[in-house]
Write a structure and sequence with these properties.
The complex is a heterotrimer of chains A (406), B (296) and C (346).
Chain A: H1 10-26, E1 40-46, H2 53-72, E2 81-87, H3 92-106, E3 110-113, H4 116-129, E4 133-136, H5 159-172, E5 182-187, H6 190-193, H7 196-205, E6 210-216, H8 224-233, E7 237-241, H9 248-257, E8 263-266, H10 273-279, E9 287-290, H11 302-314, H12 323-344, H13 351-360, E10 383-390, E11 395-404
Chain B: H1 6-37, H2 44-61, H3 66-89, H4 97-119, E1 136-138, E2 141-143, H5 145-167, H6 169-179, H7 181-186, H8 191-216, H9 226-237, H10 242-263, H11 265-268, H12 271-282
Antiparallel strand pairs in B: 1-2
Helix pairs in contact in B: 1-5, 1-8, 1-9, 1-10, 2-3, 2-4, 2-8, 3-8, 5-6, 5-8, 6-8, 9-10, 9-12
Chain C: H1 10-14, H2 20-39, H3 42-67, H4 75-91, H5 96-115, H6 123-143, H7 145-148, E1 154-155, E2 160-161, E3 164-165, H8 169-190, H9 194-204, H10 206-211, H11 216-242, E4 244-245, H12 252-265, H13 270-294, H14 305-323, H15 327-341
Antiparallel strand pairs in C: 1-4, 2-3
Helix pairs in contact in C: 3-8, 3-9, 3-11, 3-12, 3-13, 4-5, 4-6, 4-11, 5-11, 8-11, 9-11, 12-13, 13-14
Chain lengths: 406, 296, 346
């Protein structure tokens, strides 16, 4: 009610309007929800181009292949899997943009991403949205921590666990009283640096001396000074970590030319057959840890056999399936298993229920993709095997039993 | 061990100086373009990358013998460089520095992306070993064969270019056009052609460097990134001095190797850049660069 | 056709929006910006947030490079400084209206340091010096674990206002857009003052400016400081937006992106900055949309999306430099001139 003696206070009006506005957007619906019928969408931001392109193509194929294969067998609880992927170039802002876009368009219950950086940033969003589980190509130890990343899981051991497997192997095969000396060569990236403190701690626990640590740029050109240092340190084993291929072949070739007899060892991403092929003659003696079977190892492994048959139909000229394809195939298997358990228990597909389903996976037979039955209680697969390069067959053959890590 | 490991020092120093030879060659490419056309070519790394990819295509994909493949790839890069000079640099010739700089940066981006589109990054391309790998053992010092031969090759190429510029007619006319284009025009030198030729030479030098680097590491668009570290070399030596490029290349190579040897590989990456900042503060025109006088 | 635009006082002449028509359009814009997040998909809101951040950072770069002529290829590193500063203090409980200026201030301080050599070195040399700074700062981000978290990165608590948390894109929009508007108006105002005019004089011919009595060192440092302040604030907002950050984000490619934004938009113009930022943010989106359409004819073409983006980016820069050196601003001016003079020809 207005009258000339008491005009409505303009400030009051402004405050009321502001309050209404704030109330309006505070109540704005933020919670998206996953479709409970229809296709199950698996979203992905794959590094198909960029520095990880070598792996990204295979990663992309693996997950798509699994979805096709599973759909041909009736899908998951009668619903089809739909794989929607985009190229991220392994850049965090692209990965986040793809993530937001796919979350907005499809609300996928599962999302496969890229770098550790992405996983950290996405963990916030994922935690808020509460609709999705994520997985990725990075096996950094903090990502397996269910407290800080509750909706993330990985279908491999963490990098630290892999380093532990290598050290275990070294320790078990040590002859005599003196333990063999180990040198670690790693790249100056999150990928490379993540497991180093853990590996050093484990080495100390096993009383294995770490005689040298060498850090290089991921794609280093001139490694001669580093090899000169390695030569002087006289290690028996050299663990390489944080590289997909280069400069490992160059390191090994120069080490051999310098007369070093140390055994070079690698972790998962450098264990692909194509990497070893580029080493040429220097591949002899290459040892490493891998959590899966290779595609040529199908004995007693019905899923590996099925994978081979499917790929032979879809991509007939591809006779070797890289570990990147295997990795995302297994990720697809895990996602399907989680969704199936959730649906069979009659629970709606959301983050909390899928997390429960994830952590309920224990003693899960992967059909031979991994050697031992898998437990995803700790959001990782804690087992792997040592493989060694066999000069005669030019393939990587198992050199130990399947080892479980802590 | 009580005494200082002199042999280690000698080894790191030798390795550094030899690796510096390759850097000096890449720096030569930069200096050629700066001297001839006044531009810092941020796309130098991409010339290297193109050379390596063309060589790979000719040699491995088309199966040609090495020498033929080499000549073909050098010719292709020279043609690309000439095309770039004509279509991009010529229209920008009067523009302020930032425009030309950004044009070369844009070119670098386009070339890197283009190579990725055409050849794809999904495969692990393996270059054939071009330089002999047999190492040279001098006492306890081991010098890997590729480093030694890349140095020898770089030295030969730099020597060839220096002699060419000093004694051949085209070389002298290029130097004339570079130092004073107007007078050169008056004297009948085709300045445009010499600028084009400058770019072609720089392209060839870059291509050779790229092929060597690719055969040492692996073939990927990331080869182009190596060239940014060479900026330190040209700033130290002086943007328009070939002698400076040589000396600075050796110095920076030595510094990098010693840093890698004594301080660890992480620090090695920023040694060129810290060096750049220090030189720019103390002696902006470098060791042998000519002081630029600005007139109103 | 525009007629009757008379200025009757100096103050009116200098004002930023002199005509009623301009003020009207401004109100329309403000309303549109206010209502935007309610009408669109969440993805577009996050795009708008990124756009806001880009606008702030690019404005800073334009102040340094476009208006003062100091080429900087290290802008991304200053954003990183701002981001990590904000993260550090936010983790210790400082509210965002203090961390934002602090982040800007920290970046400005570093900008002063980097700008110190600018008296001795100019043009290309300064560009190379900023390039070196870019790499060195990123190295510091990666190695200084105790403050920046090293390669592992840092978690940024979400910005909060007396308990009201800005924890998703819609809410961040209402922080970023007002800050961007404020900073843009501040920049516009800067160039009404003698400081701004000194910047422009330095760009045009710094020796002449010195002769006219402008203290080169003081104003060049000021330009660096102001430009870096903007970068710092943009970086801090970036940190709040993503709520986590790693050093991999602040690459040379990002610095080059901002240079491209101001060149494509128009050097030395704030409207150009906005146009350039909008254009360069939308181009990858359009490209992505175009390629998903193209998958119908050629499946698998989205796999080379990133490489094609790189090619398009490079060609855009070259294209604008060769054919339209004054950028999108010139295109805009031509369009405006057409409508102002219609039905007469320009």
């Amino acid at each position: 009610m207005n009258n000339n003696n008491h005009p409505v206070n303009p400030l009051r009006r402004r405050v009321i309007n502001a309050g209404l506005g704030a109330a309006a957007f505070a109540g704005f619906p933020f919670r998206a929800s996953v479709a409970q019928t229809g296709d199950i969408v698996i979203g992905a931001a794959m590094p198909i181009t960029g520095v990880f392109a070598f792996a990204g193509v295979g990663l992309n194929q693996g997950l798509g292949d699994y979805c096709d294969w599973r759909n041909a067998r009736g899908g998951v609880a009668g619903r089809r899997l739909r794989y929607v992927a985009e190229d991220s170039g392994y850049k965090m802002d692209q990965e986040m943009a793809i993530f937001k876009k796919l979350m907005g368009e499809h609300q996928p219950p599962a999302f496969f991403g890229g770098s550790t950086a992405w996983a950290k940033v996405a963990a916030k969003e994922v935690g808020q949205l509460g609709t999705t589980l994520t997985s990725g190509v990075s096996f950094a130890s903090e990502l397996a921590d269910a407290k800080s990343h509750p909706y993330h899981f990985m279908v491999a051991p963490t990098y630290v666990a892999m380093g532990e497997i290598l050290l275990e192997h070294i320790s078990r095969n040590a002859r005599g009283a003196t333990k063999p000396a180990v040198a670690i060569v790693y790249s100056d990236t999150e990928f490379g640096r993540d497991p180093i403190p853990g590996i050093k701690a484990m080495a100390q626990a096993l009383q294995i001396p770490v005689v040298l640590e060498v850090v290089t740029k991921p794609g280093a050109v001139d490694v001669s000074s580093e090899v000169a240092k390695l030569r002087r340190a006289k290690p028996d084993f050299v663990i390489f970590h944080g590289y997909v291929s280069a400069p490992i072949p160059e390191f090994i070739k120069q080490m051999r030319e310098a007369g070093m007899k140390a055994t070079p060892m690698g972790t998962i991403w450098s264990m692909d057959k194509t990497t070893v092929d580029t080493m040429g003659a220097a591949a002899e003696g290459w040892v490493g840890v891998m959590p899966y079977r290779y595609s040529y190892d199908t004995k007693d492994a019905p899923m590996m056999q099925a994978m081979k048959e499917h790929v032979a139909k879809v991509r007939p000229d591809m006779n070797y399936i890289s570990i990147f394809n295997v990795h995302t195939w297994l990720a697809g298997m895990a996602i399907a298993e989680i969704v199936e358990r959730c649906l069979k228990a009659g629970k709606p597909l959301n983050g909390a229920n899928m997390k429960v389903a994830l952590e309920s996976i224990d003693n899960w037979d992967t059909g031979g993709v991994t050697g031992l039955p898998v437990s995803l209680k700790n959001h990782q697969i804690a087992s792997g095997r040592i493989y060694a390069y066999d000069d005669k067959t030019k393939l990587l053959q198992p050199a130990s039993d399947w080892i479980k890590t802590s | 061990m009580n005494d200082f490991d002199w042999i280690a020092l000698a080894e790191f120093s030798a390795l550094g100086l030899l690796a510096g030879g390759l850097q000096a060659m890449i720096a030569l490419g930069f200096v050629l373009i700066y001297k001839g056309t006044g531009v810092i070519n941020f796309a130098m790394g991409e010339f290297m990358m193109l050379g390596a990819y063309f060589f790979y295509t000719a040699n491995v994909m088309w199966g040609m013998p090495m020498v033929v493949a080499l000549l073909l790839s050098l010719a292709a890069v020279a043609a690309c460089a000439a095309l770039i000079e004509r279509t991009i640099l010529r229209p920008l010739s009067g523009q302020p520095v930032i425009s030309v700089l950004m044009a070369t940066i844009g070119l670098a981006s386009a070339l890197a992306g283009g190579v990725d589109v055409v050849w794809g990054g999904g495969k692990n391309y393996e270059m054939p070993t071009l330089l002999s790998r047999t190492p040279l053992h001098i006492g306890e010092v081991m010098i890997p064969g590729q480093i030694l031969w890349s140095f020898v090759l770089a030295a030969l190429i730099i020597l060839a270019f220096t002699l060419y510029f000093r004694y051949s007619k085209t070389g002298i006319s290029m130097r004339a056009a570079a130092s004073d284009p107007v007078t050169a025009y008056v004297l009948g030198i085709d300045v445009r052609a010499t600028q084009r030729l400058t770019w072609m030479f720089a392209g060839v030098v870059g291509a050779v460097a790229g092929i060597i680097v690719a055969s040492i590491t692996s073939l990927s668009p990331a080869i182009g990134g190596t060239a940014l570290g060479v900026l330190a070399v040209i700033i130290l030596g002086g943007l328009d001095s070939i002698a400076g490029a040589i000396v600075a290349g050796l110095i920076v190579g030595l510094l990098e190797s010693l840093t890698a040897g004594y301080l660890g590989g992480k620090v090695r990456d920023i040694v060129p850049y810290v060096t750049v900042l220090l030189i720019l503060l103390i002696r902006p025109y470098g060791l042998f660069g000519t002081r630029q006088i600005e007139r109103l | 056709m525009r007629i009757g635009d008379f200025r009757e006082s100096y103050a009116h002449d200098e004002s930023i929006w002199p005509t009623p028509v301009q003020r009207g359009w401004l109100c329309v814009l403000a309303t549109a910006l206010l209502l935007f997040p309610f009408g669109v998909n969440g993805y577009f809101v996050s795009l708008a947030c990124m756009l806001g951040i880009h606008v702030i950072a690019a404005t800073g770069l334009n102040i340094m490079t476009g208006y003062t002529g100091l080429i900087s290829i290290g802008h991304a590193a200053f954003m990183g400084v701002g981001c990590y500063t904000a993260a550090y203090f936010a983790q210790r409980g400082m509210p965002f209206f203090l961390t934002l200026p602090l982040a800007g201030g920290m970046a400005a301080l570093l900008g002063l340091l980097v700008g110190l050599p600018s008296l001795r070195i100019k043009g290309l040399y300064l560009a190379v010096a900023t390039l070196a700074t870019q790499f060195i700062l990123v190295y510091v981000f990666r190695e200084w674990d105790s403050v920046t978290g090293g390669v592992r990165g840092v978690n940024v608590p979400s910005a909060s206002l007396f308990g009201f948390e800005l924890m998703n894109d819609q809410r961040m929009y209402f922080l970023i857009v007002p800050v961007a508007a404020l900073l843009l108006v501040a920049a516009r105002n800067l160039f009404r003052t003698r400081v701004g005019r000194a910047f422009i004089a330095i760009r045009d011919k710094d020796i002449s400016a010195e002769v006219l009595g402008i203290n080169l060192l003081r104003y060049k440092l000021a330009a660096f400081a102001v430009g870096s302040f903007y970068a710092g604030v943009a970086g801090a907002l970036l940190g709040y937006f993503y709520r986590a950050m790693t050093p991999e984000y602040f690459t040379l490619t990002l610095s080059i992106f901002y240079l491209a934004v101001i060149i494509v938009g128009g050097l030395g113009s704030l409207l150009g900055t906005i146009l350039g930022a909008v254009f360069m943010t939308l181009v990858p989106e359009l490209l992505r949309a175009g390629m998903s359409v193209a998958t119908r004819w050629s499946p698998g073409v989205t796999e080379i999306l990133n490489s094609v983006q790189q090619v398009v980016f490079g060609l855009l820069i070259i294209g604008f430099l060769v054919f339209e050196p004054h950028g999108l601003l010139e295109v805009w001016r031509r369009v405006r001139r057409f409508f102002h003079l219609w039905p007469f020809r320009a």
